[in-house]
Design a protein that fits this description.
Elements: E1 3-12, E2 15-25, E3 30-34, H1 41-48, E4 58-66, E5 69-70, H2 76-81, E6 84-87, H3 99-106, H4 119-125, H5 127-131, H6 142-154, E7 160-164, H7 172-187, E8 192-196, H8 199-205, E9 208-213, E10 216-222, H9 228-235
Parallel strand pairs: 3-8, 3-9, 6-7, 7-8
Antiparallel strand pairs: 1-2, 1-4, 4-5, 9-10
Helix pairs in contact: 3-6
Bound molecules: adenosine-5'-triphosphate and magnesium ion.
């Protein structure tokens, strides 16, 4: 097991957002946290990477086990060093640096010395980034910027890649391109945890899904076997 979250409660100030969340990600899985606006998807991601801490007037309770270590209470800097790459919601790139510079400053060896994700391999996966190599990040389209954020995550040679709503605000044709990218990453055995509200994207990119509502898991199972009634009940389809 790469990640195992047990009885996670997360708080901003005194307001509790996550309630007894339980979630697992096994090696080479692609797991999706699926849910509507404001249910706690990003809070789950932030809890994992140590961004809920007293400095941010927030905290977590419970256990987040990652590769045999408990991450609870560990600093976000130290957690990143354990091989978790986090792509936050909202396409954060460096707008004044070129595409190539954005990639190079993200580059680091994996925890076990793994250096598989070279810039050439990134360009194979994202030919568009190669074409735009010298462009400033800020000149890219929304879809290209999102590709760059994913590419920056991969440049860290992660053991676990967290992707928070990478489809948000993108045209269907771009969402489809991203779906192909995730499918290719799965073929290459990259372990992924996605947060999504785009159901079709979730269905096409994950093998297991946790549906969350009001900060807690209301359904979990194989993505391909989620009953239609469940999707309509929790996601309004
Ligand atoms: N910094 C914060 N301080 C206080 N409350 C917050 C903070 N960030 C998020 N919340 C609240 O926590 C709840 C869950 O937010 P979260 O961002 O985790 O949802 P989400 O599922 O990621 O939603 P979205 O699909 O809009 O990204 C919401 O009610 C939100 O208002
Ligand atoms: Mg969110």
């Amino acid at each position: 097991m790469i990640l195992e979250i047990n009885h996670l409660n997360s708080f901003y100030g005194s307001s509790q957002i996550l309630f007894d969340m339980n979630l697992k990600v096994d090696k080479t899985e692609s797991v999706c946290i699926l849910g509507r606006n404001g249910v706690g998807k990003s809070t789950t991601m932030k809890s994992i990477v140590g961004l809920l801490n007293p400095r941010n007037k927030s905290h977590i309770e419970g256990e987040i086990n990652y590769c045999g270590k408990n991450l609870t209470g560990m600093s976000s800097y130290k957690i990143a060093r354990q091989g978790i790459a986090y792509v936050p919601q909202g396409r954060h790139i460096f707008p004044t640096l070129s595409v190539k510079e954005n990639l190079l400053i993200a580059q680091r060896k994996g925890v076990d010395g793994n250096n598989e994700w070279t810039i050439d391999k990134i360009y194979e996966l994202f030919p568009r980034l190669k074409e735009r190599e010298t462009f400033k990040g800020g000149r890219l389209s929304g879809g290209e910027q999102q590709m760059l954020t994913i590419a920056r995550g991969l440049m860290q040679n992660p053991r676990l890649l967290l992707l928070d709503e990478i489809t948000e605000g993108l045209a269907p044709i771009i969402v489809n391109e991203l779906k192909n990218v995730i499918q290719t990453l799965r073929e290459q055995n990259v372990t992924i945890l996605l947060a999504e509200q785009n159901v079709n994207f979730a269905l096409g990119t994950s093998n297991r899904t946790y549906i969350i509502e009001k900060g807690t898991v209301v359904y979990e199972g194989e993505t391909a076997a989620i009953p239609k009634e469940v999707l309509s009940k929790h996601l309004g389809l």
